[in-house]
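Example for tutorial group B:
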């Protein structure tokens, strides 16, 4: 379902340049495929798509600009996942979320006659977030809110104030996949983006450093539109290649990852039943050898097609009775260069 590609030193990027194409490694087979796709020289320090993202507490505010203090963020002891602001120099510092500081709330409703509330008491980051959400809107979030705050504040206190910037302690794949496979080297990952090492294990580094990188081009795509099966088939053939076929466990895993992101409980597959010949077939002409039907399926019917739920189980559906998201197979993967 995927093609692994290495972008060499001539077109090296930091991980933010990789975007949604950073290689996702779901198991040891993927890891071997990745290592076999390149030379030892490049293998020793190439980005993969595993990272720990900074995000703002307030929903809908994107993290796209930063004002870190020099040497920050440093993730001391691999435990600093929340951020405070020093008003005196208007710079950010990462720190342990369990420490207690004063904090700044954003008030979209101007309940106190002002857009911002500065606390007099100290709380942990999580408690500060809960307080702001209960009494105001949220912890101050985003560069624009911070700029507005700077024009309204009346002091330059030289002490930390929690702001709404944080990151999850868990690592996540750049395409949103939920695979739990990890292959860390003996040293604990301390930075925020993952890379391969000479021994085939993973290490981490600052995401802004420049390295070669592994890409993958997923050959399936989730369409978040709801259609009956026949319309989904024509859509895939008009815009991509076909409704997706699943011929082995590897295909199953990758289609299942896409199904988890659907807005409907099931997604259409390219699986169809023929009454004339009395068997199931893939519309792309592959034979149905691999199967993952759920228990207690209804009997076969002339108007039945196959769908998948978010857990990866196949189910039989009457075509015209259901409008579902669907998964298309794509044409030849694009090169990453």
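The residue assignment follows.
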């Amino acid at each position: 379902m995927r093609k692994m590609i290495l972008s060499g030193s001539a077109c090296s990027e930091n991980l933010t340049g990789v975007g949604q194409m950073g290689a996702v490694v779901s198991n040891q087979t993927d890891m071997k495929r990745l290592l076999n796709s390149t030379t030892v020289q490049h293998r020793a320090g190439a980005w993969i798509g595993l990272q720990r993202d900074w995000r703002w507490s307030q929903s809908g505010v994107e993290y796209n600009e930063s004002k870190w203090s020099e040497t920050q963020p440093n993730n001391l002891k691999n435990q600093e996942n929340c951020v405070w602001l020093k008003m005196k120099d208007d710079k950010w510092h990462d720190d342990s979320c369990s420490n207690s500081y004063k904090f700044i709330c954003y008030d979209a409703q101007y309940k106190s006659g002002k857009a911002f509330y500065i606390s007099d008491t100290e709380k942990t980051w999580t408690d500060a977030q809960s307080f702001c959400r209960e009494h105001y809107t949220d912890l101050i979030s985003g560069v624009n809110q911070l700029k507005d705050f700077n024009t309204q504040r009346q002091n330059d206190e030289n002490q930390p104030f929690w702001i709404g910037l944080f990151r999850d302690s868990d690592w996540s794949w750049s395409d949103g996949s939920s695979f739990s496979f990890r292959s860390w080297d003996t040293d604990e990952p301390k930075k925020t983006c993952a890379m391969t090492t000479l021994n085939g294990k993973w290490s981490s580094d600052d995401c802004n450093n420049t390295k070669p990188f592994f890409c993958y081009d997923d050959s399936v795509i989730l369409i978040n539109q709801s259609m009956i099966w026949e319309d989904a088939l024509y859509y895939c053939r008009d815009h991509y290649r076909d409704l997706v076929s699943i011929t082995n466990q590897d295909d199953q895993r990758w289609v299942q990852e896409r199904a988890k992101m659907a807005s409907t409980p099931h997604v259409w597959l390219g699986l169809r039943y023929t009454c004339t010949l009395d068997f199931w077939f893939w519309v792309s002409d592959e034979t149905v050898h691999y199967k993952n039907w759920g228990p207690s399926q209804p009997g076969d019917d002339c108007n039945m097609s196959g769908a998948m739920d978010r857990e990866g189980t196949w189910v039989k559906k009457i075509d015209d009775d259901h409008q579902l998201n669907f998964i298309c197979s794509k044409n030849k993967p694009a090169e990453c260069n």
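The domain at 219-329 is CATH 3.10.100.10 (Mannose-Binding Protein A; Chain A). Compare this with the pattern of hydrophobic and polar residues in the output above.
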